[in-house]
Specification:
Number of helices: 6
Shape: elongated
Strand content: under 5%
Helix content: over 70%
Distance between the termini: 12 Å
Number of strands: 0
Largest sheet: none
Structural class: mainly alpha
Number of domains: 1
Order of helices and strands: HHHHHH
Low-confidence stretches: none
Mean pLDDT: 93
Radius of gyration: 17 Å
Length: 145
């Protein structure tokens, strides 16, 4: 297997898994927003950010970094932009975890609006998941896997 085939298979696997995760998690947040809202309220009581969020960012970063290298074999603007977008999301989410003291204060102050915000983020996750499936479709058409 050459590097171009490996890169196409990597992005197909990455897009498919990420799309499935985003759609399933987003649907869960839309339909059952209260359990995650309760999780956020409980997490706001802790001084440190939730380990779940740290673990999610760590694995997203670990799967994004190979994509950065593989987007150059063969060079693809779509994969490169997606990888840079993913790295930007990891950076922004990491900043929010670094500022956890301020964020936990905001969570405590806005517990009434939290279910609506969780539901909105769930809808955004579903929409992004479908967009990522479109990227997987582009990889299939381009690479003829």
């Amino acid at each position: 297997m050459n590097l171009e085939t490996f890169a196409a298979k990597w992005f197909l696997m990455y897009y498919s898994l990420l799309g499935i995760l985003l759609i399933s998690t987003g649907t869960y947040l839309i339909l059952k927003k209260q359990p995650f809202t309760n999780f956020l309220i409980q997490a706001a009581e802790d001084e440190k950010p939730p380990k779940l969020f740290i673990r999610i960012l760590k694995y997203l970063l670990l799967f994004t970094l190979p994509g950065l290298v593989l987007s150059f074999t063969p060079f693809s603007w779509i994969e490169l932009l997606f990888t840079l977008w993913s790295l930007l999301l990891v950076y922004i989410a990491g900043l929010q975890l670094v500022r956890w003291k301020q964020n936990r204060t905001l969570i405590k102050a806005n517990t009434q609006n939290l279910p609506r915000i969780v539901q909105r983020y769930g809808a955004i996750m579903v929409a992004v998941g479908f967009a990522i499936f479109l990227l997987a479709y582009l990889v299939i058409n381009r690479a003829q896997i």
